[in-house]
Amino acid sequence: MNTMDILKETGFKVTPQRRAIVDILLKNKSEHLSSEEIYDLVRVDCPEIGLATVYRTMQLLDEVGVISKLNLDDGCIRYEISLNSKDCHNHHHLICKNCGKIMEAKEDLLDNIEKEIQELYNFKILDHDVKFYGLCENCSK
Length: 141
Ligand SMILES: [Zn+2]
Ligand SMILES: [Zn+2]
Ligand SMILES: [Zn+2]
Known about the structure:
- By secondary structure, the chain is α+β, with helices and mostly antiparallel strands.
- The protein has two domains: 89 residues, Orthogonal Bundle (Arc Repressor Mutant, subunit A); 51 residues, Ferric-uptake regulator, C-terminal dimerisarion domain (Dna Ligase, domain 1).
- It is 38% helix and 18% strand.
- The chain has five helices and six strands.
- The protein has a three-stranded antiparallel β-sheet with strand order 1-3-2. A three-stranded mixed β-sheet has the order 5-4-6, with no helix packed on it.
- A hairpin with a 5-residue loop joins strand 4 and strand 5.
- The model has no long low-confidence stretch (mean pLDDT 90).
- One zinc ion binds next to loops.
């Protein structure tokens, strides 16, 4: 099944402008783009698009559950697309405090921690969101 079929199945109406936005997200899968950055990239092929359309589309994609948001508390929300809901949660982020670079840690080592917390606090964990802050290889030289 291709991307647009998956989206249609979620009830998302694919218009040419929305398709252009999804294409940009797919092409920049590991980039963690903000709405403004997505807008700048989409405008290259789709100059008539407005920033409001980008905001609205991101909101809709979020509602159908195919993007995840990354909030670094710097006032802008970054997005990444994950069409398979299973891989919506497939990595954690390493954020360089110096240059702002965002890397992805593919290993999820938190299952054991979740188990312990569930037992300790009698709390059913549904998800977690972890960010590691530090210095990237370049910045720690
Ligand atoms: Zn760095
Ligand atoms: Zn990511
Ligand atoms: Zn995790």
